[in-house]
Design a protein that fits this description.
single chain; 393 residues; alpha+beta; 6-stranded mixed sheet
């Protein structure tokens, strides 16, 4: 499965339409969340969250939407509120399994998004299934895309081939709107890799050091962008985006600042995402077995002296990308036990000695004479770690 994400080129009317759809979904999500939590206080009602939400959905469509004050809801596609209930079901399912925290109400400050999909099909006879692919939208090559229930919209970057999809998600980052959709296509992973086994040491000074001598760094543009962010925040430290309780409306100047602030945060995130994606793709293409350390990132971030550097180097994101790219590039990612002394052990004679974090050069004290960069030594140890210390990701 592949996904395509393109930025939309919208005028003021289309931007208003996108915001309206996002607001509709946000309203329905918060409506369902409030009624569901309220229903738990009813005695004698034994229903699962899914069945309760199905009942709430019926109340919404048959009662709430029919009221005169909610006539505006009929201006938007029905799939918007249906996807909101689907997302709410998924959120509570993940919470029940202990995967996430309790679902919170959607806020406009957290960004806008909504999902639309095509549901109609062409039936030849009553009672028989629809023709195949009639519930999909065909997207022609070019800079135009037609979303189900919405008008035809322009793209800033063209799509180079004809494709089709059923579900489309529109999202906003800062003042930019994007559309993403999934293609039913399979990737054929490569059969041959240049390197059989590769150890990767994720560090603070460098982004990653590989056992073959390759070193990856976070670009200097990240530091420049964070400096610009700090100056922007300090200059506008007293700006407030209104106050609903005190009935104070946000000024246009404050709105412009918060859009600019969100854009700068997005710029930093894009630099990190671009760097980690290119790095993990390069590693996955050249190595068959990839070994990284099973780091306790949450515990490491608790150290305030390392928290900023660790967050900037995206340790967990690198691991996540290497794991999901296994299917694309035919790799095997192994996680080395976090207590394995990769940094304290000599890669030649396997002598273990204490090493402080400030020591950047490993000098073996056993007499073998090995002098090596600390991270390179650790990456070789991770590559050669015994099988009982490694588990597949």
């Amino acid at each position: 499965m592949f996904a395509i994400k393109r930025e939309l080129k919208l005028n003021n009317v289309e931007t208003s339409l996108m915001r309206g759809n996002a607001g509709f979904k946000r309203w329905v999500y918060n409506y369902g969340l409030e009624l569901l939590t309220t229903s738990w206080s009813f005695e004698g009602v034994k229903l699962s969250d899914s069945k309760r939400l199905d009942t709430i959905k019926k109340v919404f469509t048959q009662v709430t939407m029919q009221k005169a004050e909610y006539a505006w809801m009929k201006l938007y596609p029905s799939t918007v509120y249906q996807s909101a209930f689907m997302d709410l079901k998924d959120a509570f399912s993940r919470w029940r399994k202990g995967l996430t925290e309790f679902p919170k109400k959607k806020s406009k400050k957290k960004g806008d998004s909504f999902t639309v999909y095509k549901t109609s099909g062409i039936y030849l006879e009553k009672g028989k299934p629809a023709l195949p692919f009639t519930n999909r939208v065909v997207i022609n090559a070019g800079k135009l895309i037609k979303l189900p229930g919405l008008k035809e919209l322009r793209l800033k970057e063209r799509i180079d081939f004809i494709c089709s999809s059923q579900t489309f998600t529109v999202s906003r980052i800062a003042d930019k709107w994007f559309v993403s959709f999934v293609l039913d296509a399979e990737n054929i992973p490569p059969v041959i890799h240049l390197i059989d086994k590769l150890g990767i040491d994720l560090g603070v000074k460098t982004l990653a050091t590989c056992s073959d001598g390759t070193v990856y760094d976070m670009p200097i543009t990240t530091k420049k962008a964070k400096t610009k962010l700090g100056k922007l925040q300090w200059k506008n430290r007293n700006k407030v985006l209104g106050n609903k309780k005190l009935k104070i409306r946000a000024s246009n100047n404050a709105k412009r600042y918060y859009v600019q602030l969100a854009g700068q945060h997005a710029h930093i995130a894009n630099i990190r995402r671009d760097t980690t994606q290119k790095m993990t793709t390069d590693i996955s293409r050249k190595a068959y077995v990839i070994r990284i350390e099973d780091l306790n990132v949450q515990g490491m971030i608790a150290n305030h002296k390392l928290a900023q550097a660790l967050s900037n180097n995206c340790f967990y994101e690198i691991r996540r990308q290497l794991i999901y790219k296994q299917a694309y590039y035919g790799t095997k990612v192994g996680l080395v036990d976090r207590w394995f002394p990769s940094s304290k052990m000599c890669s030649k004679c396997h002598h273990i000695q204490p090493m402080s974090l400030s020591e950047r050069i490993f000098r073996c004290k056993s007499g073998c004479g090995n002098i090596q960069d600390r991270d390179e030594n650790a990456s070789i140890n991770l590559r050669d770690a015994p099988l009982e210390k490694v588990r597949l990701a």
